[in-house]
């Protein structure tokens, strides 16, 4: 009886071990994906902030040019 029980348990134990390894690999893959996703979010956040700073600088330059053009128009009108 014990021999039969061992013979029946062996394939089940192997299948259980294989399933556990598959779960571990899936968890590792999930963790790597989460890390990459977080890295991508940070890069997007940084790029957005950089673009915002560039837009602010460009807007300031345009504002200065418009102001100078307005001053020139006023001088020309005098």
Description:
The structure is a single chain. The protein is an all-alpha fold and 78 residues long. The chain has one domain. It contains 1 helix and no strands. The chain is rod-shaped.
List its salient traits.
1 helix; 78 residues; 97% helix; mainly alpha; rod-shaped
Largest sheet: none
Overall shape: it is rod-shaped
Q: In angstroms, what is the radius of gyration? A: 34 Å
Overall mean pLDDT: 95
How many helices in DSSP terms? 1
What is the tally of beta strands? 0
**What letter string, H or E per element, gives the SSE order?**
H
Give the amount of beta strand, in percent.
under 5%
Q: What is the domain tally?
A: 1
Low-confidence stretches: none
The span between the termini is 114 Å
Residues in helices, as a percent range: over 70%
Helix- and strand-based class? mainly alpha
Task: Summarize, please.
This protein has one helix and no strands.
Q: How are the SSEs placed, and which strands pair?
A:
Elements: H1 2-77
């Amino acid at each position: 009886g014990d021999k039969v029980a061992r013979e029946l348990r062996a394939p089940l134990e192997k299948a259980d071990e294989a399933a556990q390894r598959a779960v571990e690999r899936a968890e590792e893959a999930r963790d790597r994906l989460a890390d990459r996703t977080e890295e991508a979010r940070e890069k997007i956040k940084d790029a957005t902030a950089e673009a915002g700073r560039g837009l602010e600088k460009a807007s300031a330059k345009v504002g200065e040019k418009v102001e100078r053009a307005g001053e020139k128009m006023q001088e020309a009108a005098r």
